[in-house]
Write a structure and sequence with these properties.
Number of helices: 0
Shape: globular
Structural class: mainly beta
Distance between the termini: 37 Å
Order of helices and strands: EEEEEEEEEEE
Length: 124
Amino acid sequence: VQLQASGGGPVQSGGSLRLSCEASGRLPSRYGVGWFRQAPGLERDFVAAISGSGKTIDYLDAVKDRFTISRDSAKNTVFLDMRSLNPEDTAIYYCAVDFQPLGIRRDPTAYNVWGQGTLVTVSS
């Protein structure tokens, strides 16, 4: 499976964006998908993750009231809806698949396949 992240771009503070992570091949519903972000000079950080069933979701505290992760299994796509964006959200956003079917994880090293990233730039 290959992942294609899209939907990033420039946005003003307070604005919204929807990121998409589309799998080129079939994305088995038992695999969790995570979103991560990496700002310049910083490590790649966990943002949100969703289990294969969609029933278990986890968010970074800093985004949990502003971001929503969801998946459309029919379209092999996972979305990250972001609202009330602020300059601290500026980063390259990556999606990734975890082939471990038990739960969802925050550790980026646990994820097996990564998309190429999409840049989100929030201006004040």
